Amino acid sequence: MIPQSKQAGAALLSILLIVATLSVAALMATETIARQTDLQKLSARRTSALWAARSAEAAALAGAADLVAASRLPASSGDTGREQTLVLPVESGQIILTLRELPPCLNLNALANPEEALRAPQAAALAVLLEDIGVPLSDAAALAATLGDWIDADQIPQPGGGEDAAYLASSSGTRTAGQPLRSPAELAPLPGYTPELIQAISAFTCTVPLTDGLRVNVNALTAENASVLRAATRGALSTADARRFIEARPASGWNSVQDVAEFAQGRQAYAQVFAEVPLAVRGEYFTGEGSVELDAGRWPFRFILHAGADGAPRIVWRSFGDAG
C-alpha cells in the first residue's frame, strides 16, 4: 500500500507538470498572436504606403504641365532646375518625391524592337556611343547585338549576339531575359558588360519600357551629353559639331523643331543629319523617385511618367517597395 503522503506528492507533481505545460502553450500562443498582429500591422502599413505612392503619382500627373514647361528651357551644366522635390504630408508620416526630366539618352530597350528597320538604327547608335567611350568597333557592334538578343522576344541570334542556346551551352547555363531592362544595372549578366562599362554608359542611356527610340530634346542638351546627339546620328555628326550646335542654341531655347530645321539649312554639318534624327524641343518622359515614410517604416517607389503631345499624361512604369 502506497503511503498517503506519497500519493499527494505525485498528484502535486502532476499538477505542476500540467501547469508548466499550459504555461508554455500559453506563451507560445501569445508569441504567435503577437507575431501575427505585427504582420497584420506591417501589411496594413504597406498597403497604406502603396496608396500613398499612388497619391504621389497623382500629384505628378497633376503637375505634368509644369514639368513640360520647365523642359523647354535651355539646360546648362549642373542644371538642377529640371527637377523638383516635393514633401507631401500623409497620416502618420510623409511622402518625399523627386521629379526629374529624363535627360537625353539612348533607350536600351529599343534594341528589342521586332522590326529590323527600327532596331538597326538603335543598335548602330549604341555602337557609336560604345566606340566614343573607348570600345573597339568590332566589340561595340557585338555588344549591341548581345544586348538586343538578351532582351528581345525571339530566339533568332543576331550576328555577334546569342540567344538561349548559346548561354545554355556556356558555363553560366542561363537563358536570355526575353524582356525589357528596368535599369542599366541589369546589363551585369551579359558577356562583355563589365562594371566599368556599365557605369560609363549609364549617363547616356536609359530603360524606358518601350521598343522605340526616344526623341532628343535639343533644349536639354549640354556639353556633357553631346555624345547622345552624336550617337543618335549614328556617328554622322562629330562630337565637335554636336557641341557647336548646343552652343548655338538661342538664349531662350529652341521654340520648335521647325526652328532647328531652319537653322540647319545651309549648314552642311547639320542639314542632312538632322533630317534623319527625331528631335523635340520639350521633354516627354519624366521620372519620379521617392519614399513613403510611415511610423518607423520606409517604402521606396519609382515611376516613369509620359507626357506626350497628344493625350493626357500617364504612368508607363512603376516599382514599389524595392530598388528595381
Specify the overall morphology.
elongated
Q: What is the number of helical segments per DSSP (H or I, 4+ residues)? A: 10
Q: How many distinct beta strands?
A: 9
The strands making up the biggest β-sheet line up spatially as: 1-2-7-8-9
Estimated structural class = alpha/beta
Q: Give me the strand/helix succession.
A: HHEEEHHHHEEHHHHEEEE
Largest sheet: 5 strands, antiparallel
Which spans of ≥5 residues are poorly predicted at pLDDT below 50?
none
Which band does the percent of strand residues land in? Answer: 15-25%
**Quaternary status:** single chain
Rounded mean pLDDT is: 87
For the termini, the CA-CA separation is 77 Å
Query: What is the rounded Rg?
Result: 29 Å
Estimate percent helicity. 40-55%
Keywords:
324 residues; alpha/beta; 16% strand; 43% helix; five-stranded antiparallel β-sheet; 10 helices; elongated
Verbal overview:
A hairpin with a 7-residue loop joins strand 8 (about 295-305) and strand 9. Helix 3 packs across helix 4 and helix 7 (about 225-230) crosses helix 8 (about 240-245). With about 325 residues, the chain is α/β, with parallel strands linked by helices. Strands 1-2-7-8-9 form a five-stranded antiparallel β-sheet, covered by helices on one side. Strands 3-4 form a two-stranded parallel ribbon. It is elongated, with a radius of gyration of 29 Å. The chain has ten helices and nine strands. The termini are far apart. The mean pLDDT is about 85.
Which helices and strands appear, and what pairs or packs with what?
Layout: H1 4-62, H2 64-71, E1 83-90, E2 93-101, E3 106-107, H3 116-132, H4 137-151, H5 164-168, H6 195-202, E4 205-206, E5 216-217, H7 226-232, H8 239-247, H9 257-264, H10 271-274, E6 279-280, E7 285-294, E8 297-306, E9 314-320
Helix pairs in contact: 3-4, 3-7, 7-8
